[in-house]
Design goal:
The chain is α+β, with helices and mostly antiparallel strands. It has 2 domains: 187 residues, Alpha-Beta Barrel (Serine Protease, Human Cytomegalovirus Protease, Chain A); 205 residues, no CATH class. The protein contains 23 helices and 12 strands. The strands form 2 sheets. An 8-stranded mixed sheet has the order 1-8-12-5-6-7-3-2. A hairpin with a 5-residue loop joins strand 9 and strand 10. The longest helix is centred in the last third of the chain and has 19 residues. The chain is globular. The two termini are 28 Å apart.
């Protein structure tokens, strides 16, 4: 489960981010005294041992308050003191400074986390972030110039910050229910306190605030945002609706509404197999490809039905899980990722039914990987992805069919360029894209999620020389 956490959702009564004034002789005199007052002696001592290279501007950031001292934040998320002590270093291991959670590529970051610490006096996680104030520092850290941040800090203005984390599960503070995503949140039927599904953030009669405890967080993103995440939700009308209904918008719901994703090089924590991690990384690549569709839109003509021959997926042939997995593998060997309608034919064995539901499924495809990664369902489904199999029975037969389909469906450059030439001769124009739906419930969403698992399985089986091509990844989205 992914979550958005905002430091301002706790009452720290001081600026969240503050530039540390360090002279050429180091942190000394009045500047040292001010820093000790804010961060304590132990962090000040640690700072003295951290090497800062030219162009790196140190910033002290207050991140997380422990539940025992501050309570949960206003979005109903809590982090116990033991958790803060145990997991604060994940900021150093995984997080960089981004803007608006655009965290796919570390090259688009603006700073790095040099150190993290749990302040035992103030009962909170604190960070030392260095921002890139010069091009040399940006190049050295593999990022960009933090011009906007430096201007605000130089003026003494506070910076709105949001952080992102992944948790294998969270725990209801009232009944102890463990949930891997929001769909598993407890309800009034099982939790005497009403359940996190509808009562998160509620103050109970005994004064306890019902919240989600996060025992094993991995923090991977610190972002400067135009407004804190919950304020963004407010301007979008989401918090206003939640407030009218008397409910709190949780950190997990914020992450879903903001389509939060993880960086491309981020490996999920927990008991995930190598296969699941590989599938997560493919899903992240597909999210990145979806963001760059416009640059490749002209090539969508290569996926138009108008440039294909009469060949199609035979109906009623691949209706068992084993056969579908075998056919997925055979097609992938030729660089084929089926369009959604042909995929539906493959799993349903009914061309007429597939044609009737395909338009609805297509509308649910934009953002499907972001939604699945945000609500934690992708990793769960990837454990038993039905489109990944090892049975080689009948592979020769399926490979023969895949060879015949390759001219019409392969997304490898040779076949794509050939179909583009045909499209030019036939006057085929690029198709318009689909707008994202406001709601993603119902059978269209269920089939879109199945299709997303199929695509990941196809790329998982594909020759790496094919799968690494951004064109192939992008065309697998454009063809729908």
């Amino acid at each position: 489960m992914l979550k958005i956490i905002t430091p301002s959702s706790w009452q720290f009564d001081e600026p969240i981010a503050q530039m540390i004034k360090i002279s050429s002789q180091g942190l000394k005199g009045a500047d040292l005294s001010l820093f000790i007052k804010r961060a304590g002696h132990s962090f000040a001592d640690e700072l003295q041992n951290i090497e800062l290279t030219p162009g790196e501007v140190p910033v002290h950031l207050i991140a997380i308050g422990s539940t025992e001292f501050y309570g949960p934040n206003r979005n109903g998320d809590g982090f116990k003191e033991a958790t803060c002590k145990k997991d604060h270093n994940s900021f150093v291991k995984h997080a960089r400074w981004y803007r608006n959670h655009k965290n796919k590529n570390p090259d688009k970051s603006f700073g790095v986390v040099k150190a993290s610490s749990y302040n035992p006096e103030m009962k909170r996680i604190e960070l030392l972030v260095t921002l890139n104030s010069t091009k040399e520092a940006a190049d050295r850290n593999g990022g960009l110039l933090a011009t906007e941040e430096m201007e605000k800090l130089a003026k003494g203005e506070d910076i709105s910050v949001s952080m992102a984390c992944r948790v294998p599960h969270d725990v209801c503070s009232g009944c102890g229910n463990k949930a891997r995503n929001r769909s598993e949140y407890c309800t009034g039927a099982l939790c005497k306190h009403g359940g996190l599904a509808s009562k998160i953030g509620t103050v109970l009669e005994n004064g306890h605030i019902l919240h989600a405890d996060n025992p094993d967080p991995t923090f991977f993103d610190i972002s400067k945002v135009f407004r804190p995440a919950d304020r963004i939700a407010y301007t979008m009308g989401q918090l206003e609706k939640a407030a009218a209904a008397g409910v709190t918008m949780s950190g997990a719901e914020l992450a879903e509404n903001m389509h939060l994703t993880t960086p491309l090089d981020f490996s999920p924590a927990g008991d995930y197999t190598a296969s699941v991690i590989a599938q997560v990384k493919i899903a992240q690549q597909l999210i990145e490809a979806e963001a760059s569709l416009q640059a490749w839109a002209h090539k969508s003509v290569a996926c138009s039905p108008e440039v294909r021959t009469a060949k199609s997926i035979p109906t009623a042939q691949f209706v068992t899980t084993t056969k579908v997995a075998q056919m997925t593998r055979a097609l992938a060997e030729h660089g084929i990722v089926l369009p959604v309608e042909e995929f539906l034919v493959m799993i349903q064995g009914d061309a007429e039914k597939a044609a009737s539901v395909a338009p609805q499924v297509r509308q649910h495809l934009p953002g499907v990987y972001s939604r699945m990664l945000a609500d934690g369902s992708f990793e769960i489904e990837a454990r038993t992805n039905p489109f990944i199999g090892t049975d080689n029975t009948h592979m020769g037969e399926y490979r023969k069919l895949a060879t015949a389909l390759a001219p019409d469906y392969s997304l490898t450059p040779t076949y794509v360029e050939r179909r583009m030439r045909i499209a030019t001769l036939r006057g085929v124009t690029p198709s318009p894209g689909l707008e994202k739906l406001a709601s993603f419930d119902g059978p269209g969403e269920d089939l879109a999620r199945q299709y997303s698992l199929y695509k990941v399985a196809a790329f998982n089986r594909m020759n790496p020389r094919i799968a690494e091509l951004s064109l192939t990844l992008t065309l697998s989205i454009l063809q729908n």
